[in-house]
Amino acid sequence: MNARVVSTDIVLGILPIALLVALWQALVTFGYAPVSLLPPPGLVFARLAQQLVSSGYLHDIAATLFRLFAGFGIAVILGVTIGLAAAVSPGINAVVRPVVRVLAPLPKVALYPAMLLLLGFDHASKITLVAADALFPILLSTYYGASMVEQKLIWSAMAAGTPRSQVLFKVVLPAALPSILTGCRIGLVISCIVVFLAEMITSSDGLGHVLVAAARTFQTVDMFVPLITISLLGLILNGLLHGLRTYLLRGFPEV
Amino acid sequence: MSASLIGRRLSPLLACIGLLCIWQAAALVLKTDSFPTALEAIRAIPSILGDHEALLNILDSLRRMVIGLVLAALVSIPLGLMMGRSRAIASFFNPLLMVVYPVPKAALMPVIMLWLGVGDVSKTLVIFLGVSIPIIYHSFQGAKAVEEKMLWSGAAMGLSAPQRMFRIVLPAALPEILTGCRTGLVLALITMVTSEMIARQNGAGNILFNALDMAQYETVFAMIIIIGAMGIVLDAAFEKLRARLVRWSEPDVDIPVSFS
């Protein structure tokens, strides 16, 4: 019964994607859109398959992934540390709160020119931008997760003899984990988006650069390929994070 | 007004001043041409805002942003609410949204420009696309969390399905929807800047990146301050509106847990 519900869900879910591709194909076949503006899906996917085995394109994917992971990693480390510290210590909280309140709504892309001027056109400026954008969702969800930890859990742990210095790692961190992982998921999607944008603005390699280079020469097919690639990458990374989440949260009550 | 409230009002301002001081100090230490001090950048602001054309450009950007945001809210909130209340609709749209989510919407700009030109339509469309997904997602979460009992009571009192949607689900999901709109507001600014940077024609993003290309570093940093201030002011204004609309909702989780 349950399996049947799931399989209906999958069919329902594939339907709109299939419809979208069908609509795309129909627009081309019936001549509503010239092939030079909207290449047929078959052509795009064939080109994608061809690109995925070419070393040049794989190099671009590797460059994008490197920046993505570096920026995301920095954001996770900083976000979780600062978030926990702010939740635990009122002193740090008093400093972090107003700063976060000012910096979080700031559109970070606007800072990118400053990062370019300070850090150069290489990896560093892009990684900084990714980290700056992914940091705040992770920081905020860590903070809220850690500040909502039930006081009873902490008292019980201390009554059971947990030393104060270990309460943070043995009680607060695990209890905040579901919230932290939700923040990481948002941060990961944002990292995908931002790394692509940064590469579109200035870069000599990476998926964003492939798109811009194709746009300059009106190679419409090549414009769609990096877009589909980043969507696939996002899906795969999201799937991996989901797997990590089910592994880390085994035994947690319904998440 | 109590002292703590004044403190809470003033602390973001203090944080701004603190950040500007750090910038000033860093610029004085580094001493490179491409990194002006905070004071130099602030001094460049009046000349940008005083320039008639630049001011019109910035207002144009804001107008596109607001139109895109409002259109996105009008479409996304009903869609998200319906997804939250119907399992079939949710499983219909969810995979599509997951596929579309990691695609940077501003990266669609070159493709959309081919179809619709570089004018207002394509930029507004890109902002619309960029903002929709978080609003849909939060409305979906909000509607899903509505208590069944309230809906049953509503049905028992004779409310039809659309009436239940309007009078029970919408208000109950409002705090979550507004959180989505707040995320959307920041995203709209980001998409606005990037779309104008890709279609270099007019707007705030264009001024910023043109100044970068022409090595007018004071203008670059002044524009960063202007765009940043827009983000902070819009966010604060929205937060005020939100607090007014959902005054009944539980207060902010402000109090840090201390276990010492």
Annotation keywords:
heterodimer, A: 255 residues, mainly alpha, MetI-like fold, 2 domains, globular, B: 260 residues, 80% helix, disordered C terminus
Explain this structure.
The complex is a heterodimer of chains A (255) and B (260). By secondary structure, chain A is an all-alpha fold. Chain A folds into two domains: 1-37; 39-248, MetI-like fold, CATH 1.10.3720. Chain A contains ten helices and no strands. The longest helix of chain A is centred in the C-terminal third of the chain and has 38 residues, at 164-201. The model of chain A has no long low-confidence stretch (mean pLDDT 85). With 260 residues, chain B is mostly helical. Chain B has one domain (33-245): MetI-like fold (Orthogonal Bundle), CATH 1.10.3720. Helices cover 80% and strands 0% of the residues of chain B. Chain B has helices at residues 3-30, 38-50, 52-85, 87-100, 109-116, 120-144, 148-156, 161-198, 204-213, 217-245. In chain B, helix 3 packs antiparallel against helix 8, helix 7 crosses helix 8 and helix 8 (161-198) runs parallel beside helix 9. Chain B is globular and about 70 Å long. Chain B starts with a helix and ends in a 15-residue tail after the last helix. In chain B, 39% of the residues are buried. The model of chain B is unreliable at 251-260 (pLDDT under 50). Chains A and B meet through helix 1, helix 3, helix 4, helix 5 and helix 6 of A and helix 1, helix 4, helix 5, helix 8 and helix 9 of B.
